[in-house]
Amino acid sequence: MRRLACVGALAVFLSGCGDNEDAYFAILTSQHFRVHVYPGVVPRDNLLDTLEVNFRDIRAFLKFPETLVDYYLYPSVELAAKHCFPTEANPLPVPCSKGASVYSNVAPDQHELIHAYMYGVGKAPPPLLQEGVAEGVSCPGRYVNPLVPPWRDVVGARALGTSAVYHAGVALFVYLVRNFGVDPFVEYFGRARDTQDPDLFQADFESFWGISLDTAWIEMLRSRSVDDRINPICPCTQPVTLPLDGSQIDTRSLDTMTVPLPDEHPGPYLFSTEHSSRLANCAQDVLSFDLAGQPNRRRAITTARLLPERHYISAGLGTSVTAQRGDFVARTCAEAMPIAVPTGYSGALDMLVAGESGDVSPGDWFARFVFDDGPRTVLVSPSVLSTQTLRICSSCEAAGDACVPIALNQGDVTVTVGPEMVLRATYSIPFRDANKPTVRGTTVFVSPP
To answer: Which ranges of 21-162 does DSSP label H, i.e. alpha helix?
Structure first.
């Protein structure tokens, strides 16, 4: 992550404070933050830059007004909680926010930051809406339990210590943003009355959205994820997008680990990655695929046909990433562009195909890999395949004995290939849920030469 110069940063060191735990060790300032550092905290040297990046990316999505956040950074969550709940003898050990101020022992604390950011949008809305947006914007973020109580029970509950408020809040936030857009949600957030009266909440909701709250409560739990989880949204509002000309990204020059693809084009794409990296859709409910970084796949060459929506790559520090767009996955072998495998390459070769229900229809999909260093040995583990049938062929014209069939119920298979290897994947079974998009995947591992 890039370490920028903290222009305007001010450090004020205090001495002679004795045992006064309310005395700051330092105050750090930037355009949108005033960080109050308490004794015992050693702030990271790029803390202000990290906070400003968070402000920039979240504001580009939620479009909250310009604000100055007072961030109180403590050495322990117990001290943070003591300042959050000063009248309680044994406060729950959690961070909090009050207005545009954050009280936490970690930085950045995105959940509490979003509370502080949204303070300027309007009067504080019900806890269901506040916690929904605070938990519902994250890259990658945690999924929530879709089993929530009826809305009347949730609207009337206090947020602190009530997990249903958070889970239902995320589900409602994701549903409204996906179906109506983020701008209308922010407008609704600013207009909603601060009430825990179920009838008043219902009246405000139905007046603004023009739909039944009963209907929305049912539909918001219909996840697109095949495992029925509700996932937060990654804004994908980072200013740097993934170049598609095959040039390598220097992740050390980036101020974020989230690098979106430039548009909603489904591709296909060709990704070449080394070290920690992951491919996901920005809604984070259909695709989350580790490109490289696992012990058995430090390097990966991945060709992918995606859904027609925004996606991103999460890249760790020092990760090598290149991307291209072209017909690297096709319905016929002749249409598939050959993919050159570098000399001496060892690692994973992947083919991913995503589609809505009925889109990835029964039939074949092809990817072609070309080795320029003679025959190579590849390992296929049928247990990780999501195809019905996989054939590994020596060329587009190959048939019969020149193709090796791989069945899902067999053990690991070793195949010698080269100079060309054709992956022919057949999807001839229905999806688990005809109403959900899904991703089919094929992976082979190339052994060292």
So the answer is: 47-62, 77-84, 110-118, 127-136, 151-155
